Amino acid sequence: MSLLSILRHQRANWLGLLGGTLLVLLLVLAVAGPWLGLPDPTRGDLRARMLAPTISWTGLGSHPLGTDQLGRDILSRIIAGSRVTLTIAGSAVVLGGIVGVLLGLIAGYFGGWWDRILMRLVDIQLAFPLMLLALLVVAALGPSLHNLIAVLALTSWVRYARIIRGQVLTVREREFVQAVKAMGAGPVRILIRHVLPNVLTPALVVATLELARTIVLEAGLSFLGLGIQPPSPSWGRMLADGRTYIASAWWIITLPGLALMLTVLSVNLLGDWLRDWLDPRSERS
After folding, report:
1. CA 184 → CA 169, 181, 188, 191, 197, distances in Å?
2. Which residues fall within 8 angstroms of residue 277, CB to CB, at 6 or more apart?
3. How many CB atoms lie within 10 A of CB 79?
């Protein structure tokens, strides 16, 4: 291994560690938020509206990241918004992954009209703008937690299906699969016991990258007013509320935007490291 390859590998390790650390820190804050003694993220105080952040060397003020236009604490709203965002995005990624992997297994293993129908559905959805599709479905069904998870899962299953199908087309022709089939094993047993474990690695990598995309998509829907509705805080809604005050109270929109950026960055760094670790052949020259 050349010195340049070693340096690239070490850099990937450090970036993956950084991304994982940031993501774990966010998860800890999201889970422990209700026990941190922070102000109620939905309760306003007009006497304390639009207070600037009060972080200094002498300590933290009562509102270390300031307050918004209704006097609500920005820090508590960011932490509460992280619970909403991670719950929605994580649930959508899991649901979309289960559906996509299942359909990819069926299309790749059985082929024939199963393959043709499922892949045409994939092509149709990939040709349709995902944000427009999400807007149409949410506008039709109404903005709610369950509808939002279902819509985001609907936009993500196609990537799993295409990748898993390609992997299954290769695995199903390998000797151990043909041997098990010759011994009389049924299709369900072959898929679950022998094919699925050999195609899960790319699905895990796709899941990490899909998590970042889903977080951004959820924030976009909330920004447009089609996500989680007030008074529940969400990062996208905080960005929408703060855009009017960007000149007079920059922290209202900047700090939630920074939280969103760091979360997506940490997930992407972790996903890149996971890809390189699970499949060393994907290392770029």
Report:
1. 20, 5, 12, 13, 20
2. 16
3. 22
Backbone dihedral angles phi then psi of residue 283, each to the nearest 5 degrees: -60, 130
> Is this model's pTM higher than 0.70 or not?
yes
**Residue 252 near residue 233, CB atoms below 8 Å:** no
Per CATH, domain 73-282 is 2.40.50.140: no
Residue type, 62: S
φ and ψ of 60, to 5 deg = -100, 145
Token couple for 235: 């990062």
Q: Which SS3 state, helix, strand or coil, does residue 238 take?
A: helix
Cross-strand pairs, 117: none
Domain ranges of the chain: 73-282
pLDDT tens-digit map of 118-135: 888 888 888 877 778 787
